[in-house]
Design brief:
There is one protein chain. 26% of the residues lie in helices and 35% in strands. The chain is built from three helices and eight strands, in the order E-H-E-E-H-E-H-E-E-E-E. It is an alpha/beta fold and 155 residues long.
């Protein structure tokens, strides 16, 4: 089964705006999604850490993102069956959008670690000009090798 990540236009535009503000710094956060059907996830919200990133490195601030998660689950009535964490995202400004070895290792630690996260996607994005938005994504599942994710833009 190929996992699909649906990125609605408002989500893409919000990411592009944050990427423009960040300029040459990496930014990122967590992705929240609604499962449309098995293996198809529509991103409904995401956090943005615009402070922690550097030119070629990003590690998200857990305190900020935990507050985002709490607020998200409050807004969605703690409906975990419908809305939930689906993964992580970050930018690679003016760099290839392929995940780095560090990116892949971080995701493998996430799904194979002590937390109760059996799978997660990693979305790597770039927008070097106002009209550009390029992305790639990988699916990470406990005990399995990473697999490519099909990204579907939705208007």
């Amino acid at each position: 089964m190929t996992v699909q990540l649906v990125l609605p236009k408002p989500i893409r535009l919000r990411m592009m705006s944050a990427l423009a503000r960040a300029e040459q710094r990496e930014i990122g956060g967590v992705l929240m999604a609604r499962q449309i059907e098995p293996g198809i996830f529509k991103v409904v919200d995401f956090s943005i850490d615009e402070v922690s990133g550097e030119r070629a490195h990003f590690v998200r601030d857990h305190t900020y993102h935990n507050a985002f998660l709490q607020a998200f689950f409050e807004r969605t009535g703690r409906d975990y069956e419908t809305y939930n964490y689906v993964g992580e995202w970050h930018s690679h400004p003016r760099l290839p959008i392929l995940p780095s070895i560090t990116d892949l290792e971080s995701m493998e630690e996430l799904v194979n670690g002590e937390r109760d996260i059996s799978f997660a996607v990693l979305l790597v994005v770039r927008s070097d000009s106002p009209m550009e938005f390029v992305a790639t994504s990988t699916f990470h599942q406990r005990g399995c090798a990473p697999e490519p994710v099909k990204i579907r833009a939705e208007d």
